[in-house]
Amino acid sequence: NAGVMQNPRHLVRRRGQEARLRCSPMKGHSHVYWYRQLPEEGLKFMVYLQKENIIDESGMPKERFSAEFPKEGPSILRIQQVVRGDSAAYFCASSPDNTGELFFGEGSRLTVL
Amino acid sequence: SQQGEEDPQALSIQEGENATMNCSYKTSINNLQWYRQNSGRGLVHLILIRSNEREKHSGRLRVTLDTSKKSSSLLITASRAADTASYFCATEAPDAGNMLTFGGGTRLMVKP
Fold this sequence. Notes:
The complex is a heterodimer of chains A (113) and B (112).
Chain A: E1 5-7, E2 10-13, E3 19-24, E4 31-37, E5 43-50, E6 53-56, E7 65-68, E8 75-79, E9 88-95, E10 103-104, E11 108-112
Parallel strand pairs in A: 2-11
Antiparallel strand pairs in A: 1-3, 3-8, 4-5, 4-9, 5-6, 7-8, 9-10, 9-11
Chain B: E1 5-7, E2 10-14, E3 19-24, E4 31-37, E5 43-50, E6 55-58, E7 61-66, E8 71-76, E9 85-92, E10 101-102, E11 106-111
Parallel strand pairs in B: 2-11
Antiparallel strand pairs in B: 1-3, 3-8, 4-5, 4-9, 6-7, 7-8, 9-10, 9-11
């Protein structure tokens, strides 16, 4: 049973470009969470999704950021018109329900030049 | 602001010694979880303690929870060099599902 798969592991973008980060949850998990980690800091919740639904996006910046979890395929975190402050590690986690242990992917590290 | 705050921010010990990390939080919780993160890697779940529990063990790990003081501690006994990592506490608030609030972490270095 493969774990949570994230890609790309590393992504470099110039200011103004778009970044797309993908996350495939563990098999049988229908709950997906995105977290952001700045260097030397803890993780900050961004968004919680189930298939085709955004359940809670209270941690998402109001502009430029969006997330989806379609019926088929991975969850996508999309950042438009990236700025240097978007440089961070973005982690996806999944769970079979909305309580208990989260299973994290290895993260996608975004660097904005 | 962060819900959980770990103390100390960094800890350096010799192999074989015990390591104790503390976490304080501000609001009521359903549970508190500890995670480990190796440099450049994802987080690995270590242990979950529910708000009605006071102590939990898992191998060389011992976690305590004091809800009256809104604090938790993680004890790693007989540490090994392979325990070198960052350790984060995370709290789940009532009705928050798995939208965890993480602390800033304790960076543990275990010297061989």
